[in-house]
Structure formats: structure tokens, C-alpha cells
Design brief:
InterPro entries: CT_C_D, Cyclophilin-like_dom_sf, PxpB
Largest sheet: 7 strands, mixed
Protein name: 5-oxoprolinase subunit PxpB
CATH superfamily of the largest domain: Cyclophilin-like
Helix content: 10-25%
Number of domains: 2
Strand content: 25-35%
Keywords: ATP-binding, Hydrolase, Nucleotide-binding
EC number: 3.5.2.9
Pfam families: CT_C_D
Length: 234
């Protein structure tokens, strides 16, 4: 594998590994991340994997652009994908309900599956964490079944409750904190995703695998969930 290298800053290079989003990219992305980390050592400032790219931020006082490119070349020599068995597994409880997921029933009608069918289809797949961003602990996961794929709302909501589970295109994610957002909400989880006691402050990291487990309202409350109905406002 030979990445395309793009300059994005005086001390940053973007490595383009793939042209399309695919679950099969992740083992290669994890292997590349580890090899680049080892190749740069103390000269590495930050390393940000995403769906198809890897951002390398290095210490310009330690190495220059030419040296950085050479380390990248060395890192990719003989690269082999990381075994998927090493990925961390998460089972996340979710209360799928229209009161906390206002797009659950509309999505059921649009897909022809009904609300129950949406729940079954969404919770039957194991998702990969492709990237973290937007907010601390916010994980972009995929790929959602094509029949559930839904475009973002035309007008983002000013406030989405913490724990809200949503779909945007073929991605799915849980809002870890109260924040603005335009994803289609189908449920809510009581799981704490952002915590200063966690490694990297986040429950998950790129490469992790996630399965959503449907629970009822009583179990949701027992686990500490907030069942305050979502108020849909214009």
C-alpha cells in the first residue's frame, strides 16, 4: 500500500489510503496508524485516523518535511492489515422509542419496515468505529444497512439530549453530550461515553466494534437513563 501524501500545514501531512468508505479499510488503517506511530516516535505530535485518511502532525523542530516523508515511506513498507480479532467489543444498551427518537416512526414508514423493523435491522449489525470527532466521545460508526440510510435534517436542531442515537446517511452515532445536531434520532442510551477517567476521555477508539442492545424503558431508567421526552420544535 502506497498512500497519497498531501501537505495540510507546515508540520502536517495527510495520508490518503482509500478513495471510498468501507468496513474493510479499518484493519489497514489501524496497522498504518501503529506503524506510523512507531516510525515517528518522539517526533510525532498527533495522529488522527479517519474513514480513508490518516493525519500526521509532527514536531517541526525535530524533523523536516523530507524526513517526515521518508519515515512514512518506511512505515508503509511491507504493511499488513491488523487482525480484526484484536478490536475491542462494546455492547451498548439503547431504548428505541418515539418519545426519545422522533425519527424512529417516520423512518419506519419511509423504509417500509415499521418502527419494529427499524429497531431489528439497526440492532442486528455490528458497527465499526471509523473516527472520533465533532464532540468529545462522539464516534462515527458504520455502515448502516442501506434501507436505513437517511440524509441529515435540513435544519439541525439547536439542542440534542446526551445519549441520543442517530443515523446520518449510512453512519450511526450517539451524542455523548448535549449539543446541536442534525442526525435522525431513533433512540437513547444510558451509557456514559465521555468521562475524564476514561483513556482518551472516550469510551471507544477507532477500530472498536459496537453492537446496540435494545432495552425497555424500565431497564433504561434502572441504568440511569433520562427518559424526558424529546420535544420536537420548528
Amino acid at each position: 500500500m502506497t498512500p497519497r501524501i498531501e501537505v495540510v500545514g507546515v508540520d502536517s501531512l495527510m495520508l490518503r489510503l482509500f478513495d471510498q468508505i468501507d468496513e474493510g479499510n479499518m484493519p489497514w488503517m489501524l496497522a498504518a496508524t501503529q506503524r506510523v506511530r512507531e516510525a515517528f516516535g518522539p517526533a510525532l505530535r498527533d495522529l488522527v485516523p479517519s474513514y480513508t485518511t490518516l493525519l500526521v502532525h509532527y514536531d517541526l523542530t525535530t524533523i523536516d518535511d523530507r524526513q517526515a516523508r521518508q519515515r512514512i515511506t518506511d512505515a508503509f513498507e511491507g504493511l499488513q492489515p491488523t487482525a480484526g480479532a484484536s478490536a475491542r467489543q462494546h455492547e451498548i444498551p439503547v431504548w428505541y422509542d418515539p418519545s426519545v427518537g422522533p425519527e424512529l416512526e417516520p423512518l419506519g414508514k419511509r423504509s417500509g419496515l415499521g418502527a419494529t423493523g427499524v429497531i431489528d435491522r439497526h440492532s442486528s449489525h455490528t458497527y465499526q468505529v471509523f473516527a472520533l470527532g465533532f464532540a468529545p466521545g462522539f464516534a462515527f460508526m458504520g455502515l448502516v444497512d442501506e434501507i436505513l440510510a437517511s440524509p441529515r435534517l435540513q435544519t439541525p436542531r439547536k439542542q440534542v439530549p446526551a445519549g441520543s442515537l442517530g443515523i446520518a446517511d449510512r453512519q450511526t452515532a450517539i451524542y455523548p453530550l448535549v449539543s446541536p445536531g442534525g442526525w435522525n434520532l431513533i433512540g437513547r442510551s444510558p451509557t456514559r461515553l465521555f468521562d475524564r477517567e476514561l483513556d482518551g476521555y472516550s469510551l471507544w477508539q477507532p477500530g472498536d466494534r459496537v453492537r446496540f442492545i435494545p432495552i425497555d424503558r424500565a431497564e433504561f431508567i434502572r441504568l440511569g437513563g433520562d427518559d424526558t421526552p424529546f420535544e420536537v420544535t420548528p
